[in-house]
From TrEMBL:
This is ROK family protein. It holds the Pfam family ROK. Belongs to the ROK (NagC/XylR) family. InterPro entries: ATPase_NBD, ROK. Gene3D superfamilies: 3.30.420.40. It comes from Chitinophaga fulva. Coiled coil: none annotated.
Amino acid sequence: MDIIGIDLGGTNLRAGVVKEGVLQPVVSQPLKAHGNHAEVVKQIFGVIDKIIDSDVKAIGIGVPGLVDPVSRILYNVVNIPAINETDLRGILEQRYRLPVKIENDANCFALGEFHFGAARSYKSVVGLTIGTGLGAGIITNGKLFTGKHGGAGEFGMISYLGKNIEYYVSGRFFEEVYKTAGEVVYKRAQEGDIEAGYMYEDFGRHLGEVIKLVLYVLDTECIVIGGALKAAFPFYGRSMWETVRGFPFQRAVASLKIVASVLPGSNILGAAALHLLSVKNGAVNN
């Protein structure tokens, strides 16, 4: 069946139809993230209305916040405050008369890679989205795991070196520690700048410590890195692996796969995949 997948980001709203596992052309527009509730909902309606037709049988949406596993009410949506504590799923179902599933955007990223991308050969996967913040989606034994309150995988909030992990493993790291924008560091690294290379090596070591934490907690098979910093993987991958190889359980390291995502629209595909059941011996838990 055709499914509309929506990626509701803090700055952009993107949507596309997934037809037989293939993402059709994507509609994208800047999001009025600090608009009122009616404005944000109107924008979501607008992108859906551009691509919906009679073949569409369901809608999936990823949001930059937490989703209550039972009520599906949104909470902790820091970057889009107008939709905090709202039943966005119910609003969409009432308008379009289609089944709607809603989930955290990092969880959607992990599902996209699990169903369509680099993690298709694995049953236990962690998707790390590294951009302005750090998000994580967890798939274990073929099922999406969100925890009792929908907040499983928020590794970025864990205390680390006097701050929290997100301070060191996100775009904030370059701004806070090196007082420069991540985009500038990336451009300099592409030009062969040695200092930028050192910054990425430092970043890679912190990311390696996060991956060791993930291994202690989940002993996963595959980690896929997405978000804005996935493009810089060649610059920090070596120091990341040097750190990961210090993990005491070497069998876990030897079989671990860590890759940067190359799947276009993984969040949108993952949002659509919320409707795919009984795939790879499991179903998503909402």
